[in-house]
Amino acid sequence: MVTKNVEKALNEQIKKEEHSSRIYLAMASWCERNGYPGASDWLYKQTEEERLHMLKLVHYLNDRGGNTLVASLDAPTAKYKSLLDVFQQVLKHEEFISASINDLYAICLKEKDFTSANYLQWYITEQIEEESTVRSILDQINLAGTERGGLFHIDKELATAAKAKAKSLATLADSGA
Ligand code: FEO
Questions:
Q1: Which of 165, 149, 138 minimizes the C-alpha distance to 42?
Q2: Is the CB of 50 under 6 A from ligand 1?
Q3: Is 113 in the pocket of ligand 1 (CB under 6 A)?
Q4: 163: domain range?
Q5: How do residues 94-134 score in pLDDT, each as one tens digit?
Q6: CB-CB contact of 101 with 120 (8 Å)
Q7: How far apart are CA 57 and CA 18, in angstroms?
Q8: Half-sphere exposure of 165 (CA within 13 A, CB side)
Q9: Whose CA is nearest to atom 1 of ligand 1?
Q10: Tell me, what CATH number does 135's domain have?
């Protein structure tokens, strides 16, 4: 069993992961409409990945005898100024999620729920990777500036990265997420 405080915090994180999925869906759609098919593919895959993050927590909370809630969600914005703006917002959101996972981890320790804290280690590592990936994408976009050739090249690279992401998602889904 998990304590009521851990159950509440896990449900909040479930909501945030699902909301992340919807935020990236809106971004993917914007990229698809604005001539960035590679970025769009990458963000659609990110949408799936966040859904798997959410499912992994749903299964965990159910396995621990918790009461899992499916919350209502606010609509994400559909307006972005540029590809740079999209990925700046991705990084900002991932930093928010990292802070949220850290807070959740702290609650588990306070409640002496070391099993949940141990489970959350996977998310802590995942957040390091996610932030690092997005920072390197942003570095490339910043280097390209507004140069169309540079952005075209970055978009091609994101298309390749999306294919690699699809493989890692299949592994994550197979692992029971
Ligand atoms: Fe599931 Fe990107 O945080």
A1: 165
A2: yes
A3: no
A4: 4-174
A5: 999 999 999 999 999 999 999 999 999 999 999 999 999 99
A6: yes
A7: 11
A8: 23
A9: 50
A10: 1.20.1260.10
